[in-house]
Amino acid sequence: MRVTTISPFPFVPKRLEVEGPVFVGGEGEVYFSRCGNFVVKVYHDRTLPPEKEELLRRVLALGKNLGEEASFLCWPVALVREIDGWRRIGVVTKRIPRPPFRELVDYIFSPREFKRAVEEGANWLNYLQVAHSIARTVAALHGKGCAHADLHFGNFLVDIRKGLAVLIDLDGLVVPGFLPPQVAGMMPFMAPEVVMGRETPNQRTDRHSLAILVFHTLLFRNPLQPLVCYAEDPEEDERLGWGKMALFSEHPLDFRNRPERLGIPLFRRGTLSYRMLPPHLQELIERSFLEGLRSPEQRPLAREWERTLFFAFFELWRCLRCAQYFPYPYWMPLPLRRCPFCGEVVRPPHPVVCSVLERKGQGVLVAAKRKIVLGHRFNLVAKMLHGQREDEILGEVRWKEGEGYVFSGTGHWQAVSPCGECRKVEPGECVLLRRNLLLVFGDFALRVEEDGC
Amino acid sequence: MEERIEMDVALSQGLRRLPVYLLLDTSGSMAGAPIQALQEGVALFKREVENDTFARETVWVSVITFGKEVENLTRGLVPIDQLTLPPLEAGGYTPLGQALQLLIESLDRDVKKAVPGGERGDWKPLVFILTDGKPTDDWRTPREELLKRRERKVLNVITVGCGPDIDETTLREIAIGPSFKMDSDAASFSAFFRWVSQTVRTVSKTLSRPQGQGEGSPMPIPMPPDVLQYIP
Questions:
Q1: Contact (CB<8Å) A230/B116
Q2: Selection from B226, B135, B230 nearest residue B178 by Cα
Q3: Residue B225 maps to a domain
Q4: Domains of chain A by range and CATH?
Q5: Tell me, what's the ipTM?
Q6: Is residue B18 part of a domain?
Q7: Radius of gyration of chain A measured on its C-alpha atoms
Q8: Per the structure, how many domains does chain B have?
């Protein structure tokens, strides 16, 4: 079939040969261009509101000046004018290559998908990268004043080995006063107030969907999955289960949706709990699904997710048995620190756990909400402290048998002993990491909370 | 040191199943290429559904054949990855009525009913009936029962007639829900099963949308291939 397009971008041909449909859904049909570079979505005429084309034109206009965001927001690049001479309405987007990209659902739907990915060489670390990448896409979109309105695991394409996520289906964007909501979403990802018909999609409801996506990506289940029946009619039951009766699976008092074998290692037919995640991620999850479930304004912003997920990388430890990276559970008593995947106890030498401090007004060092976990031959990198994209190496940690962990810096830094003695340390000098030692690097510092001995 | 550990993972909890029934005619007139194409078609269906994460996790399937024997080959509903069929044999007449009766029994026995306050029920079952001839037993009584269930909106049924021996009048008589006609060559069977897979995949995805299966929202059947002729 021949598609005629209208586009402000010179790289989109005026005419495209397409084949398919490769997918037929409730909203329309999807075709691939023969050249392999584009995806064409054509709407069913019967479901089309009269103003659809104008709305699509507005969406297209919003995507004209994308910078690096164009690499992870798959914005429409053209409108469909005709197909084989017939007037049709649709949009053209760039085609994301598959492989290496696949739908997010193929990696996170259940522990089965995680198992397959691990067998193919992926690691939970990649899932954390994907979760961060998802939060980044939503943060970028919200930064432009838009809401996606249909965030779910079929609308992200993922390169698992690189930990990259690309957001697709941006044709239903919502901008208050400019683009009204056109779609409601997918029930398990929709905010309860949208399921109940009390609210239309907006950034606050997107924030709910994002929290579900992050949880699902890290723990392979929906945190609100209803386990109890509320009505005989399945559709009514779904509406109640995800809407009026929506309930966090790990609610501290209400156990209706509590999954079986919660907290048992995943590879022993267990179910991962959000308690395996670093405390600051746990906090965001509680804000999303305990407080924010009924109070949308409490839901964490996409930027908060992005930042917290970024720092979570520096709290990982690798299981010596199953090779999965997992958040080192420094918040648990030592004998209970286990790999959440295979259940292996973390064996000595345990890693060094440091809390991060940053200089606030009047030069006082104040504890930031994050920790850094370091082991033998771990580099301390500047971005671990401040979160910016700098790869400057500040030094290296090593395990010295009979002594413990030592740190040697690449530049000058200051060591403050537990009794308050401060001294300047030369580059290359090894300093034994003992509990309560303070390592000061300009506006940031690390306090050794656990020295691994 | 690291070891290769066994990864014994659990299935998702609380997922509502989508029961899919395939009622396949294995009467004598299906002998030769058609029965072979039927066997390959079911294998194709399995492959295509298994390749779709959403469908793989939600679709449970049951295969009922009717010919010399009337049999539920899967003994109820099985997850798609556990669907295995013995070699199909063509023979006998077309006991559609007995097959419909077996379907009713399985619907009553194997489809999970919702228990408010207790277990969640299954999605509305999706039934495909493929036959190449006039039924040779009492099919009107079980058909009436199935029609009633369809009217109560607890069942979706698609009937397909294949080959030269089935005319539009017969098809209209036996049809429960939308009906189609096609040839009985290998290409038609392949296209049919591909369409069945696509329908199942689309339905399994659409169910999570608001009004996915509700009243006033028709089942999202993908455009049938050219080999399938819609019988109004």
A1: yes
A2: B230
A3: no
A4: 2-94 (3.30.200.20), 102-318 (1.10.510.10), 349-450 (2.60.200)
A5: 0.88
A6: no
A7: 25
A8: 1
